[in-house]
Design brief:
The complex is a heterodimer of chains A (357) and B (574). Chain A is mainly α and 357 residues long. Helices cover 63% and strands 1% of the residues of chain A. In chain A, strands 1-2 form a two-stranded antiparallel sheet. Chain B is α/β, with parallel strands linked by helices. In chain B, a hairpin with a 2-residue loop joins strand 9 and strand 10. In chain B, helix 8 packs across helix 21, helix 15 crosses helix 16 and helix 21 runs antiparallel to helix 22. Classes of the chains: A mainly alpha (357), B alpha/beta (574). Chains A and B meet through helix 9, helix 10 and helix 15 of A and strand 1, strand 2, helix 1, strand 4 and helix 2 of B. Chain B: It is found in: Cell membrane. Chain B: InterPro entries: AAA+_ATPase, ABC_Ni/Peptide_Import, ABC_transporter-like_ATP-bd, ABC_transporter-like_CS, Oligopep_ABC_C, P-loop_NTPase.
Chain lengths: 357, 574
């Protein structure tokens, strides 16, 4: 174990310096910590995600037409029109404007992410907390169930859920809920496992024992002492799961279990309809929804992976301490004269930096 | 920085010569310099002890000799490690990675603090000893094995021919440390760097490991850099001592000179804060004199009769009896000290009294409630009359709550205040009682030092004015100087508030400072119980005698005499 030098605690008169609330927010804090490539990845991910979020929120302003609009005034758009001044990204085989569908599609994707992640977080955290804290039979049964759900193909489950929820009709909320709830079922075990493992660890910590010695009730211990300490790694899973949610939604749409084009715009559905266009050289109907899916998934994954790396002190890169204004060793004492590459100078520092294990 | 070496002026080339070493770490809070301009010399066959409190840079200094620092560290300065045969050394800080690998093990080897993690659990120990030999040019596995058996015999492992094929978990902690030392010795290095080699071990085992290290020096002529915070260990083994403080060497002297006449204020303060046996006698007598008439007839706060605690074994394994038929009583206002090695059941007794561990058999009455078969509902009202101080102040506070919220927790739980804000008045009083400024209430636990946190922990335990305080190794995670302050505070508060206390520690000297009576636990049984004068002055049980004899005292001259006594006790026991 390396002895980690801790900065000395400030004296009683020194005011306790703590970063402002804004700087302690999950993503902002990591952004400040990061350097180099890790920072680049995080910033790229954040920019892509921000564009996605803005597109979803401002869809009515950004999109030139409605998602189910087929004509402007009296004139129909026409099917499979190539990109032009009127239709910047062309039109689909059904006669919809591609750009509008792509922009509106982000709104559907965002709704699915929110519903899926919110539902799975709430359920997963509650079940994980109870399971980890009380243990016993409840815990064993829940762990087996979670393992069983892991073994289920998520898309198959999503199809079944889609049929159960919407009964074959695919309106906007039916489609969103079908996708979101099927994803919820798949994600609950992930949150369950993470929170349960953290709870098991924290349950044995002395501060929980000290709460027990004081005589605090189980509810108070769980809520005040365990829960808040057990949710540290959840932001990472949220970002990674969000991208997975989009892929499941697109998969459902592509397989024909999505949302009717008159109810909401959905990228997977558009891709499905663009299948026949690909062979006839009509590229714009498939490329743009596809690019949208790839970009959003990439953006969210970049954020998630960078947060993951930054959370681990062993993976986090730091600014090197080499450029410090530290007095160098004056004259190195070397028997038989000075070395050519002595420790005086930056070139002499290089080989000592890493631990060549 | 003075590098004068008094006393043993080495004629031969020093095996380690370190000039102006500075080590900087890149951290999230910017670069932190852990070691500033340290210069050291170690002569062949000399034991240099590097002492200091945690964070003083002693481990970093030692690790940079083998260049074992993490990637975030940058070392500057020169470290020359010479061969045992007198070949001139090269500067480790600028050496190539391959050359450093050659040097490790051959010229300088390392003994780690925790022997159970320093050995790989999936390989036999013989293989692990031979690994070093094969890495340094020996080609015959048979020869390496023979050498491993030989070195295991040298370090005192019985039946090395058989034991060479055993796995680490088949050895006891002390034997594992012997094997780690064997691993270091097998290549016959000029210097062994021992980083807290006995800290993880019990006192009686510590004495044997120190004996082995002494033999390394005397029989193999190996120099040892001994890193430790235990002044008793220093007095026992070291020829020369370097005292480190905040990354600098404040004093370097011959061991006897340093203990007899320290020149620096910091060294004096460090030596003064080491608890010594016999200091508590006067305090205990004073307390006994102040007790009212009929005190001995009062109903005890805690009464254990044939108490046993059993941890159920795993499938098809026998149950583990942690506490086996222990009887004792703590009367109001009395401090009972429990000492024992790890696994002796002392912590389990404390946890059983606090209702954290189920009582297996016998009877345990705490504040009038029988704990054998008690329900949580019956015990909860009693909890407000018990305070508990945990061993590790770093983990006994919820990191997300401020100190004031943590200290207010018992008040809120027992309905004395509606929330932390309402309890603030009382919290401030408590913080003042443990000598912490009021403003510390608004800080988070990680913003306090270990000693400050432990004082806050004491404040939390005393929030409800308990009749009984259980302190489970409250100072073993602290540095000596901090420990001294916390112990003084504990003593002062006990006198003021008059609570009864169970004080659990592995350190006899610490228990002696505070306790009215001392109980010695060994393998779950109470082998001896009595006043400090009885137990420490005239121990009757052979285990207590052994425990007392193996405790190193921070005085080289006295320790030399005690070592002879220890060897006599050990010879008699064998």
């Amino acid at each position: 174990m390396a002895e980690i030098p801790t900065p000395t605690t400030p004296g009683p008169d020194a005011p306790a310096r703590r970063p402002s609330r804004w700087r302690r927010l999950p993503v902002v804090r990591q952004l400040q910590q990061s350097v180099g490539l890790q920072r680049g990845m995080l910033v790229a991910g954040l920019v892509i995600s921000a564009v996605f979020l803005l597109a979803a929120l401002l869809a009515p302003l950004l999109a030139p037409y409605g998602f189910s609009q087929l004509r402007s005034g009296d004139r129909p758009f026409g099917a499979q029109q190539p990109p032009s001044a009127e239709h910047l990204l062309g039109t689909t085989v059904g006669g919809y404007d591609v750009l509008s569908r792509v922009v509106w599609g982000s709104r559907t994707a965002l709704l699915v992410i929110i519903v899926a992640v919110a539902a799975s977080i709430v359920l997963g955290v509650v079940i994980g907390l109870l399971s980890g804290y009380f243990g016993g039979w409840l815990d064993r049964v829940l762990v087996v169930v979670a393992d069983a759900v892991y073994a289920f193909p998520s898309l198959l489950l999503a199809i079944v859920m889609a049929i159960v929820i919407s009964g074959g009709q695919s309106d906007m909320w039916g489609g969103i809920l079908a996708a979101a709830l099927s994803i919820t079922v798949i994600f609950i075990p992930q949150y369950f496992r993470v929170v349960r493992a953290e709870t098991l660890r924290i349950k044995a910590e002395p501060f929980v024992e000290s709460a027990r010695v004081i005589g605090a009730s189980h509810r108070r211990i769980m809520g005040r002492h365990v829960l808040r300490n057990a949710t540290r790694s959840l932001p990472l899973i949220v970002t990674l799961n969000a991208s997975e949610a989009i892929l499941t939604l697109a998969g459902l749409g592509f397989l024909g279990f999505g949302i009717e084009p008159t109810e909401a715009a959905e990228w997977g559905y558009d891709l499905n309809k663009a299948l026949s266009d690909v062979t006839s050289g009509i590229w714009w109907t498939s490329v743009f929804p596809g690019v949208a899916i790839v970009l959003v998934v990439l953006g969210l994954t970049l954020v998630g992976e960078s947060l993951n790396d930054l959370a681990d002190p062993r993976l986090r890169t730091r600014r090197a301490a080499a450029g410090m204004p530290e007095p160098m060793a004056g004259a190195p004492v070397v028997p038989g004269g000075a070395l050519d590459a002595g420790p005086a100078g930056l070139s002499g520092l290089e080989p000592t930096e890493g631990d060549p294990r | 920085m003075s590098t004068t070496v008094s006393g043993t002026a080495p004629a031969a080339r020093p095996v380690v010569q370190c000039e102006d070493l500075a080590v900087t770490f890149a951290t999230d809070a910017g670069p932190v310099t852990a070691v500033h301009g340290v210069s050291l010399q170690v002569a062949p066959g000399e034991v240099l002890a590097v002492v200091g409190e945690s964070g003083s840079g002693k481990t970093v200094t030692a690790k940079s000799i083998l260049r074992l620092l993490p990637e975030t560290a940058t070392a500057r300065g020169t470290i020359l490690v010479s061969g045992k045969d007198g070949t001139p050394g090269e500067n480790v800080t600028t050496l190539s990675a391959a050359a450093v690998r050659q040097l490790r093990g051959r010229d300088a080897a390392m003994v780690f603090q925790e022997p159970s993690t320093a050995l790989n659990p999936v390989f036999p120990v013989g293989w692990q000893i031979a690994e070093g030999l094969l890495a340094h040019g020996m080609t015959s596995r048979r020869e390496a094995r023979a050498k491993a058996i030989e070195i295991m015999r040298e370090v005192g492992i019985p039946e090395p021919e058989v034991r060479v094929d055993h796995y680490p978990h088949q050895f006891s902690g002390g034997q594992k440390q012997r094997i780690v030392i064997a691993q270091a010795l097998v290549l016959d290095p000029g210097v062994i760097i021992a980083d807290e080699p006995t800290t993880a071990l019990d006192v009686t085992v510590q004495a044997e490991i120190l004996d082995l290290l002494r033999r390394c020096r005397d029989e193999f002529g190996t120099a040892i850099i001994l890193i430790t915070h235990n002044m008793g260990v220093v007095a026992d083994l070291a020829d020369r001592v370097a005292v480190m403080y905040e990354g600098r060497i404040v004093e370097q002297a011959d061991a006897r000179t340093l203990f007899a006449s320290p020149t620096q204020a910091y060294t004096r303060q460090l030596l003064d804060s080491v608890p010594r046996l016999g200091e508590g006698l006067a305090r205990a007598q004073e307390r006994a004199a102040r007790r009212p008439e009929g005190w001995a007839e009062q109903e005890p706060v805690v009464e254990a009769r044939d108490l046993s605690v059993v941890y159920p074994g795993r499938f098809r394994e026998p149950d583990f009896v942690a506490v086996d038929g222990v009887s004792f009583a703590i009367r109001p206002g009395e401090v009972l000290g429990l000492v024992g090695e790890s696994g002796s059941g002392k912590t389990t007794i404390g946890r059983a009294i606090a209702g954290l561990t189920r009582v297996g058999g016998g009877s345990l009455r705490v504040l009038g409630v029988e704990l054998n078969g008690v329900r949580e509902r019956q015990f909860r009202p009693v909890r407000s009359r018990i305070g508990f101080v945990f061993q590790d102040p770093a983990t006994s506070f919820n990191p997300l709550l401020t100190i004031a919220e943590c200290v207010a927790e018992p008040l809120v739980v027992h309905g004395r205040a509606r929330d932390a804000h309402e309890a603030r008045q009382r919290v401030d009083e408590l913080l003042e009682a443990v000598q912490l400024p009021r403003t510390y209430g608004d800080r988070y636990p990680h913003e306090l030092s270990g000693g400050q946190r432990q004082r806050a922990s004491l404040a939390r335990a005393l929030a409800l004015e308990p009749e009984l305080l259980i302190a489970d190794e409250p100072t073993s995670a602290l540095d000596v100087s901090v420990q001294a302050r916390v112990l003084d505070l504990f003593d002062e508060l006990q006198r003021e508030l008059g609570f009864a206390a169970l004080f659990i520690s592995h350190d006899l000297a610490v228990v002696d400072m505070l306790a009215d009576r001392i109980g010695v636990l060994y393998q779950g049984r109470l082998v001896e119980e009595g006043t400090g004068a009885e137990v420490l002055g005239a121990p009757k049980d052979p285990y207590t005698q052994r425990l007392l004899a193996s405790l190193p005292v921070p005085d080289p001259v006295e320790q030399a005499a005690r070592r002879a006594e220890w060897e006599r006790v050990r010879a008699a026991g064998a």
